[in-house]
Design brief:
heterodimer, A: about 725 residues, alpha+beta, Methylamine Dehydrogenase, Chain H, Immunoglobulin-like, TATA-Binding Protein, 4 domains, six-stranded antiparallel sheet, five-stranded antiparallel sheet, 11 helices, B: alpha+beta, about 25% helix, BBS2_CtH_dom (chain B), cell projection (chain B)
């Protein structure tokens, strides 16, 4: 089925957060709907489209930043009451813009997510979940990690309240009252939850989730256990999911799935006979899609997908054709509308320009006085710094409401900046005098005009830790820049997981001493990514991690006065030992570090590396041969004379090259880790084997698993 | 939306920039392109199975309508076009590092095959100036040569460095074509026959040039820049992180004006308006673009734009029709305009809000710690920059120094300098560690070449704890000769080499020139003529004396012939001198050159000797082979073995001989380059007519192998005394 949607921009408001735009229900069938949106300036705006012009229904005064906007109303009636969450307050408006509710929750943190069902209000701040009924506190839950979204399965269908929390530690927590019924592990940190088909599907228990690494899934939440229905893996490496909606845009009677991502991708999935999702349409906008909903706004009778973007654009992707097929007069009118719009915009601009000039002069004058101050305008930077599991690299995404002029990247640890196909900015590496100024990387990205979003890829080395700083300068007067800091942790390539293999041979590092639980927790936060900054509840806690590059694992269990770290990779233990003793010395805390090394673990790790190494070596060898083989092919005309192995390489040439390109320097990284393993193994024995490293590299060059293991044993 | 009218996927790789369309039989356009293994393929979709069983051409085993031409050497340039107007069809020209082949595809015969010592790294075909017959002009090691259809070189001149790109364009609007040459020293030179009429300095190696229309031409650099020049003025340029592989002028939107079509290394093709550089069309290939050409490939009477990727994918586009009204992309212009205007409005609103907030901040209490964190600084903070010369210390080599400071207690968090041609990349960053933050920063700058550079500075000013900083933007020009420090004259160290010339300018004007082009200390006070100033080069410590006599005679003493040339050219443009004859003497350099010339002769003779040896050896091989085979037939295995052993040894000798030949050849190329450069430098010391006279005269001297004459010309500027 061919879906063809045309883009129409309606208007721009301030910067918007995730899920802050909704369409009010239509008054009658197929009539146009009104759009209501809340932005970071705290303004709630409701507008409709009339003859291509946006007509405001109401607009509130500025206030605190609006984090969520939901529609509600008595159950089984049109949901047309508007609720917003700003700071720790919930406010309600009628569709005419009359405020009927102002509810101060007294939460200590500001509200991050909200769900409304009749008179029930489900709220979550960073770690706290609260359930109110008629503004009365009902239930409370403190989550172990950040809560990204909250939803409640449809009460009117299930006749019970089943709130579900999407937590940063890759878990959906299903609650009953104030207690967790069960936890569901999902493949990435969930960022958004939605009811399937808008009502929970056939069972009323079907829940959609989207993750920050771009995966989508459907889970049925039964009373006792979750049933995974389907999952869409993010094969094309698209952005994280920020919003989903169900709407029949194709017009086949089945609700399609509308998805908005943080790289500006809008997708429509239809469902096949087996109820599996199939991609029907995609469209790229230039910035994060914060909210998405299907409906009808621009012209009655034409369905469309309405999205809001980070910088506040409300845009429709409509089924209405751009080129009208009706008579020539019609076309003229259409153009006339456009022209009117343009000329009104132009005159508005002129006035503004004049005003700005005046202000600019005033500003210049103020610089003459000695008392005056000059404050830099703050602009909001939407950033994301995440570890990609697939290639064990970090991606840094920076998004600003206006065009970016340039970005300076500075790092005090050795890291590699990789090229990202998507971004068009011109990168330039500057020389850096590392000793005196702690600079290991200085690079500038000069952005092309109209770039509001920049994506970078960074490869870190475990054991080398420090800070990465990004100085973002947008194209706006007066020129200012904002600095953002990102920590490269010592175990930067590790990722949280919930299950590990307990049968592996493990090395253990034990810490004992006079330190508190929260102190030790802060060290764990310092060393490992994806650990919540807030010390978890309870006296003793266990976190599991997985090395995304080597698949080795780490278990950390700690309580007041004692911490135990177990890993099958000696290097991991060695890094932890170095970092922890350094930190403790810095804070003048007396630490007893003891370790127990399991010799078998080295062999185990080497075996774990073996298939990866072998695959990479083979791949490199094959890729090396491709050009020569192709030349032979051209020369001889056919490939019959080649041995099957070579013919196979020729057939797969494109695929092989693609694979090779995807993992730059993979082999070097593996070599580096094997070398570390070798050095660390003997470091624990108290011998320095750095002199033998060249020998090791020689063995690696003519790799054979047994020879390598023998070398490790013999040395 | 413009769609390709045809798409082909050939199973041959295409070498970048080596694609040409020609009507080799006079009617059917065929695509010729260099591919792997020293081959050229010709794709002929029009006449199938018309194959010519000849030694050079063989049918591709992979595709029926592709024939392969064996060159047996790496192809370094390729073009097609009319070389002999009487023939009525196009010739294919293929250049390698040693030869140029003009090939008649239709008759499968060579038109000519010439050895070119300077190599052929770029080629263009067409008429140049007043030369009536079309020329195949090749550019190699600092040299340009033009051949007519008989293989006679009717045109020869030298240029500053290795040639990377050539184009023919009516630069001065006289109806005749001038030659544009892009070379490795970042210069675009314009030759009116063998006279240089203009020189434009760019920031990187010029990889492609193409004529647009009239005096307009497009260019591409190896750092991802493409742009358009009109005469010597740059119209626009853009820079991408990808490299432009091929550029071509083509009227894609049928508005009567050619657009600049660029094929990029990431597989993108875009068409940009020649006036603004605005993209009017783009398309994507799965691999890098190898070439962009045009031709009536479908034989329907109108030209198509043909884009080829390195993987052999070929797409043809017809120009947009009138109904599309130049709207080649599938977006509506109005929608775009509205979006752009709204964005502008949003930006203005933001700016306005910034001022409002600033006004609010002003009303509040005096500066405190929290303000510093948010990046509030006193409004009267000024930002100073100063350029000076630092003689360096033990730890640091001598350099030009840029000092940036603020006028109060605010600190400089970082300085970004965007400049071209000074740093390894396009930018340089100074980011002091937290412990070394202060209100002033000293930045050493060492420009590698003597060119004026615009430094675009962005200084981040705030307080220690700030997370937001003010950005002060400023552009400073680094003078051309910033790497020379004023020193006190020391007659003992005065260089022997000199240039001497007379200009009709007052001494004050010369002082002005000095001030503009050197970093002089502020207290420098130069008295009236006659006077002399002395500089020391920060690069190698060489001395530079500039003496001015009352009569207006200027003597520049330096051992660096390039520097002398740069000074003369800089003065000439400052004082608007059109013609300047110069007397020059560079004894050391000339002595070196003499040695090089002797060496060139040696290499030539070695080359001949080696070639003769090789011919001898091949005779020997033949006889040995015959003898060995005879012995085999006679069943005299011992003799046969011996003969084959000898053959083996001979083979080894041949291989060794080949290696020597190779080395000899590279040495020869190096020496030839040095000679060409010397001529170029001698020309660079003069301005206008005398400059061309020197180059022509030097060339004649080299041809007649009159070395003494050559040096005489270099010294006094003319052949006659």
């Amino acid at each position: 089925m061919d879906l063809n949607l045309n883009r129409a921009d309606y208007l721009q408001v301030g910067v918007t957060s995730q899920k802050t735009m909704k369409l009010l229900p239509a008054s009658k069938h197929r009539a146009t709907q009104k759009v209501v949106v809340g932005d970071h300036d705290g303004i709630v705006m409701c507008f409709g489209m009339k003859k291509g012009e946006a007509v405001t229904v109401f607009k509130t005064l500025p206030g605190q930043k609006i984090a969520r906007l939901e529609l509600g109303g008595a159950l089984n009636t049109p949901q047309e009451k508007i609720f917003i969450a700003a700071g720790s307050e919930i406010r309600g408006f009628t569709k005419r813009g009359k405020q009927f509710l102002s509810f101060e929750t007294n939460l200590t943190e500001s509200i991050k997510a909200m769900h409304i069902s009749g008179s029930d209000l489900f709220l979550s701040a960073s770690y706290i979940y609260n359930h109110y009924c008629d503004c009365k506190d009902q239930h409370y839950y403190l989550s172990g990690d950040k809560i990204n979204d909250v939803i409640c399965l449809p009460v009117e269908r299930l006749l019970r309240e089943v709130p579900v929390l999407a937590c940063q530690d890759r878990v959906l927590r299903v609650l009953q009252g104030s207690d967790v019924t069960y936890e569901i592990e999902v493949p990435g940190p969930p960022t958004v939850l939605a009811l399937h088909n808008g009502n929970g599907g056939d069972s009323g228990e079907d829940l959609l989730f989207g993750t920050s690494d771009g995966k989508l899934g459907l889970i049925q939440i039964t009373t006792s256990k979750p049933i995974h229905k389907w999952e869409i893996r993010n094969e094309k490496k698209r952005g994280g999911i920020l919003c989903v909606d169900s709407f029949d845009i194709v017009g086949d009677g089945v609700k399609d799935l509308l998805v908005g991502r943080d790289d500006g991708m809008v997708e429509v999935y239809g469902f096949d006979n087996a109820n599996e999702p199939v991609l029907r349409f995609d469209h790229t906008l230039s910035e994060s899609v914060t909210s998405i909903q299907g409906g009808c706004v621009g012209k009655d009778g034409y369905d469309e997908i309405v999205v809001s973007t980070y910088s506040g654009w409300i845009t429709g992707l409509t089924t209405e054709p751009v080129h009208k097929e009706s008579g020539p007069g019609e076309e003229l009118k259409f153009n006339q509308e456009m022209q009117n719009k343009i000329s009104s915009l132009r005159s508005e601009l002129e006035q503004l320009q004049y005003k700005v000039l005046q202000e600019r002069e005033k500003y210049q004058q103020s610089s003459q006085s000695s008392k005056a101050k000059s404050a830099v305008p703050s602009f909001s930077v939407n950033d994301k710094f995440t570890l990609n599991k697939d290639d064990a690299s970090y991606s840094l995404i920076l998004e600003v409401q206006t065009a970016i002029d340039n970005v300076l990247i500075q790092s005090d640890v050795p890291i590699d900046l990789l090229d990202v196909d998507k971004n068009s900015a011109v990168v330039s590496f500057s020389s850096c005098d590392s000793e005196s100024n702690d600079n290991f990387l200085l690079a500038t990205y000069r952005c092309q005009a109209n770039t509001t979003r920049l994506e970078l890829k960074i490869r870190s080395i475990e054991g080398q830790y420090g800070t990465l700083q990004a100085y973002v300068t947008p194209r706006i007067q007066p020129k200012t820049c904002q600095v953002r800091q990102y920590h490269i942790k010592p175990l930067s390539l590790h990722q949280r997981t919930h299950f590990i293999d307990h049968d592996r041979p493990m090395n253990t590092l034990t810490l004992t001493g006079q330190f508190s639980f929260s102190e030790l927790h802060s060290w764990v936060v310092f060393c490992m990514p994806e650990v919540p900054e807030k010390p978890p509840a309870g006296e003793c806690v266990t976190f599991y991690f997985q090395n995304t590059f080597l698949d080795t694992q780490l278990e950390s269990t700690y309580r007041k006065g004692e911490g135990v770290f177990k890993s099958d990779n000696i290097s991991t233990i060695s890094i932890l030992k170095d970092v922890l003793s350094k930190e403790a010395t810095k804070r003048k805390i007396n630490l007893n570090i003891s370790y127990e090394i399991n010799e078998v673990s080295v062999k185990h790790t080497l075996k774990l590396i073996h298939p990866k190494l072998e695959y990479q070596l083979l791949l490199a060898k094959k890729v090396q041969l491709i050009d020569a083989l192709k030349e032979l092919q051209v020369h001889e005309g056919n490939t019959n004379f080649l041995i099957p192995e070579y013919r196979c390489i020729l057939e797969e040439a494109d695929h092989l090259q693609e694979e090779y390109k995807k993992q730059p320097a993979h082999l070097e990284r593996l070599y580096g880790m094997i070398t570390d393993l070798f050095i660390d193994k003997f470091k624990f024995k108290g011998t320095n084997v750095k002199t033998k490293v060249p020998l090791l590299l020689e063995i690696l060059d003519s790799y054979d698993q047994n020879a390598l293991i023998a070398f490790f044993d013999a040395a | 939306m413009l769609q390709p009218v045809f798409t082909l996927k050939l199973r041959h790789k295409i070498s970048p920039r080596m694609v040409a369309v020609g009507r080799y039989d006079g009617t059917h356009p065929c695509l010729a392109a260099a591919t792997q293994a020293g081959k050229v393929f010709i794709h002929n979709p029009h006449s199938r199975s018309q194959h010519l069983g000849a030694p050079r051409v063989l049918q591709s085993p992979l595709e029926s309508d592709v024939s392969l031409l064996n060159i047996n050497q790496t192809v370094s340039c390729l073009t097609a076009g009319v070389l002999n107007p009487e023939l009525g069809y196009d010739a294919l020209l293929v250049g390698t590092q040693t030869n140029l082949l003009a090939y008649d595809v239709y008759n499968n015969s060579d038109l000519f095959y010439r050895e070119v010592a300077d190599g052929a790294s770029a080629i263009v075909l067409g008429t140049l100036g007043d030369i009536t017959s079309p020329l195949a002009i090749i550019g190699g090691n600092c040299a340009l040569q033009g051949f007519n259809h008989e293989g006679n070189d009717l045109f020869w001149t030298v240029t500053g460095d290795n040639v990377h790109s050539l184009a023919l364009c009516d630069f001065d609007g006289d109806g005749k074509k001038e030659l544009l040459v892009g070379s490795e020293d970042f210069d675009i030179r314009v030759f009116k026959e063998d006279e240089i009429v203009a020189e434009m300095s760019e920031t990187e190696i010029i990889t492609s040039l193409c004529p647009m229309y009239g005096s307009r031409f497009g260019y591409a650099l190896s750092n991802g820049t493409v742009g358009v020049y009109d005469k010597t003025a740059r119209y626009w340029r853009i820079k991408s992180k990808n490299q432009a592989m091929s550029i071509h002028a083509f009227d894609l939107n049928s508005d009567g004006v050619c657009e600049l079509i660029t094929g990029w290394s990431n597989g993108k093709v875009d068409a940009r308006s020649d006036r603004t550089g605005e993209v009017i069309f783009k398309d994507n290939f799965s691999s890098a673009i190898a070439g962009v050409v045009e031709g009536d490939y479908r034989m329907e009477g109108c030209q198509q734009l043909i884009c080829c990727s390195v993987d052999g994918e070929i797409r043809g586009y017809l120009p947009g029709t009138a109904e599309m009204r130049g709207n080649l992309m599938d977006i509506s212009v109005e929608q775009d305009l509205i979006r752009e205007l709204s964005q502008k409005k949003q930006n203005l609103l933001l700016e306005l809000r910034n001022y409002e907030e600033n006004a609010k901040a002003e009303l509040s209490s005096p500066l405190n710690e929290a303000d510093g964190h948010r990046g509030v600084i006193p409004a009267n903070t000024k930002h100073h920059t100063a350029l000076s010369v630092s003689l360096g210390s033990e730890a640091q080599a001598a350099h030009a120094e840029l000092c940036i400071s603020t006028s109060n207690d605010t600190i400089i968090r970082a300085v970004l300098i965007f400049a071209e041609g000074v740093f390894a990349g396009e930018s340089h960053v100074v980011h002091p560690s937290v412990h070394h933050l202060s209100s002033s920063v000293r930045i050493p700058i060492t420009p590698p070449k003597d060119i004026p550079v615009d430094l675009h500075l962005k200084t981040f000013v705030g307080y220690r704890s700030s997370t937001q900083f003010h950005v002060f933007e400023l552009t400073r020009q680094l003078p051309r000769f910033s790497m020379y420090a004023l020193t006190s004259p020391d007659p003992a160290s005065e260089p022997l080499s000199y240039v001497n010339f007379i200009i009709a300018e007052r001494a004050q004007r010369v002082v002005m020139w000095l001030n503009q082009n050197f970093l002089l200390p502020e207290d420098t006070n130069i008295q009236n003529a006659p006077f002399q100033v002395c500089f020391t080069s920060l690069r190698n410590g060489g001395q530079l004396y500039i003496k001015i006599k009352l009569s207006g005679e200027i003597t520049v003493n330096t051992d660096d012939i390039d520097l002398a040339g740069d000074i003369i050219q800089s003065m000439a443009s400052f004082f608007a001198i059109e013609d300047l004859q110069v007397e020059a003497d560079f004894p050391v350099y000339f002595e070196e050159l003499r040695k090089v010339l002797v060496k060139v002769d040696e290499y030539h003779s070695v080359h001949q000797k080696l070639s003769a040896d090789m011919a001898d050896n091949s005779n020997l091989i033949r006889s040995l082979l015959v003898q060995a085979e005879d012995a085999r037939l006679m069943r005299d295995m011992k003799t046969m073995k011996n003969r084959y052993k000898e053959l083996y040894d001979l083979n080894k000798d041949l291989l060794n001989g080949y290696k020597i030949r190779c080395n000899n050849h590279t040495e020869l190329l190096g020496s030839l380059k040095a000679v060409n450069q010397a001529i170029q430098r001698a020309g660079h010391l003069r301005v206008g007519k005398p400059k061309n006279q020197v180059i022509t005269a030097c060339r004649d001297a080299i041809r007649s192998n009159n070395i003494n004459m050559l040096f005489r010309i270099m010294r006094v500027g003319t052949a006659s005394s």
